[in-house]
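Quick start: read one record
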Amino acid sequence: GSTYSSKVFRVTFLTLAVSVAVPLLGVTVLLDCPIDPQPISLKEPPLLTGVLEPNTKLRKAERLWENQLVGPESIVNIGDVLFTGTADGKIIKIEDGVIQTIARIGHGPCGGRADEPTCGRPLGIRVGPNNTLFVADAYYGLYEVNPSTGETKMLVSTKTLIEGQKLSFVNDLTVTQDGRKIYFTDSSSKWQRQDYLLLIMEGTDDGLLEYDRVTEEVKVLMVGLRFPNGVQLSPAEDFVLVPETTMARIRRYYVSGLMKGGADMFVENMPGLPDNIRLSSSGGYWVAMAVLRPNPGFSLLDFLSEKPWIKRMIFKLLSQETVTKFVPRYSLVVELSETGSYRRSFHDPNGVTAAYVSEAHEHNGYLYLGSFRSPYICRLNLQHV
């Protein structure tokens, strides 16, 4: 009797499974998918051993100005005064612990994801030679901001076509010491910042650009990058480094010297998805990552990278907000040497203290951690780690 009942069970189960799966498949086929992903081949992630061995060093950071600002993506300092751009479109100054809004590039209302395109979203921020701020706003373009008067001046507008392409997601910038050249990334000519998850999943090709403040010309230096994100000039100003988020690597483009116009790989197959990159006092670079590619362990991102059909299915059925919840929280900051080898790594498994880290800015023996989502800035004393 048991074989008969198990057979009945199997048939019933299969019938049920098919009756659920077929309509679901039909619906999935009919639904529009916002993305058209291409297969991406990533190498097996590096083993988290040696310098990359997991630790809890980032948990030694202290949270500052908690719930007084939201999503301080990038941080700079003029003396001991800090400046950052926040998710509600503000460029703010923090002096003696007091937060003050100095400028806005967009206009209200600001709040939800849908407001971002008009509200503006200042991302990368840098200090120029005359102590003015250069700001990359994801929706509006490149701006120069006077920190004492709050006056803003547009340098490159996203409304201007650059070599026939529109800028949709201006992300980060780096400025030469003389302030003449600004190198900046446009993370996508298709997706805006509010859809960054679709961009990561689709892996569109975009580029690195150069703005000359004297001639006011914009040139495209590199194309075919998958989610070019942060950008950093080398101390000698002979090359620019560009983290390519979706590919978990950092590319190098030569802006002067014998190699000028050439490009090569600086670091490949990183243990996470790199965001902003900044100079470290040792002559190397700090790279922040908000997503880990665990090894040993299961990396959802790596699993999906070769399977565009699963990505399509996911985004037909689920919203970006829902998908975000499946990505394990893990914060990681690595310091690279001037040649791209790993010097040290600071971890916060599950993002307990420092969540959604987007940048590590070193100032005066401290590492200030920017975040694209958290309502605080974290500060880590480098003497204590």
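The CA atoms of residues 330 and 349 lie 5 Å apart.
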